[in-house]
Amino acid sequence: MPAEPAEGRVELLRINLKELEVASDVDLDKISEQMDGYSGADITNVCRDASLMAMRRRIEGLTPEEIRNISRDEMHMPTTMEDFESSLKKVSKSVSKSDLEKYEKWIEEFGSC
């Protein structure tokens, strides 16, 4: 039985986040619900942007010299739910509902590959 679209998005989130530390408040199911209609590439972009948010917070307001002097341990900050919510506001889905409807109509008329 094929996975539900939401389950597929959760799995894509897990794959994209396997190398990252995420905060305990991160709810992949909730994030997945907000990503309805997002492509795999869109999900990857959201994860990448969210993972950079912690670093952006850490260096905000610092001079280039201060940034260079931050140790690797000090840069270590987990990605939070807030990071994902901010990224979802910035990274929109690349495929519109009308594009999907056209594709589905084409499949109905001509069949799949």
TrEMBL record:
Any one GO BP annotation for this protein: microtubule severing
SUPFAM superfamilies named among the record's database cross-references: P-loop containing nucleoside triphosphate hydrolases
Residues in Spastin/Vps4 C-terminal domain copies: 69-111
Pfam families on file: AAA_lid_3 (PF17862), Vps4_C (PF09336)
Gene Ontology annotations for the cellular component aspect, listed alphabetically: microtubule cytoskeleton
GO molecular function terms listed in the Swiss-Prot or TrEMBL record: ATP binding; ATP hydrolysis activity
Tagged with keyword ATP-binding: yes
UniProt keyword terms in alphabetical order: ATP-binding, Nucleotide-binding
Residue intervals of the AAA ATPase AAA+ lid domain: 25-67
Protein family according to the UniProt entry: Belongs to the AAA ATPase family.
Protein name: Uncharacterized protein
Organism name: Perca fluviatilis (European perch)
